[in-house]
Amino acid sequence: MSVYDYTVATADGGTRSLGDYAGKALLIVNVASKCGLTPQYEGLQSLYQDLQGKGLEILGFPCNQFLEQEPGTDAEIQDFCRTTYDVTFPVFSKVDVNGSDAAPLYGYLRAEAPGDFGPQFGGFYDFISTTFPDRIGTDQIKWNFTKFLVGTDGEVIRRYEPSVTPDEIRPDLEALLG
């Protein structure tokens, strides 16, 4: 099984097989438009512009599970991404990333890369461990802008916790893409 075995809902009501991205490196991100980390859209778009030609695809999945920071409809989210951050990478339909209604893709991603979230994340760790202690020590997505790096073979390589910026991921992407 790989990421390429999943089909996801598109923002326009259709579906898309992630097999369409076979042979590409993927950065899969749960996104939100009303989060303190929302400016990461700018860095993600910069990565996409710089590295898409080398084989990178960024796939955004809006999620409203974190203090309801993605309340809009799929159409509103698309409009926000275009007009605020000039996003050109695909942003799919809103999903759950944790819990019994989590998108199957996210169940797979969490199992393949449970993360390394701990005290090394400083104040962000303190916030999550105080506000959402049930997420600590689990494979759950901790917050918006958790990122998963997927190799060109569809296998999950690594999970990056929310406070890791797109610029901090760039060296890993450049190494993967050659």
Quick recap:
With 178 residues, this protein is an alpha+beta fold. It has helices spanning 40-51, 74-85, 104-112, 122-131, 166-177, and strands at 7-9, 15-17, 25-31, 56-62, 147-150, 156-160.
Please, could you describe this protein's structure?
- The structure is a single chain.
- 31% of the residues lie in helices and 16% in strands.
- It has 5 helices and 6 strands; from the N terminus they run βββαβαααββα.
- The protein has helices at residues 40-51, 74-85, 104-112, 122-131, 166-177, and strands at residues 7-9, 15-17, 25-31, 56-62, 147-150, 156-160.
- A 4-stranded mixed beta sheet has the order 4-3-5-6, covered by helices on one side. It has a two-stranded antiparallel sheet with strand order 1-2.
- The longest helix has 12 residues, at 40-51.
- It starts with 6 loop residues before the first strand and ends with a helix.
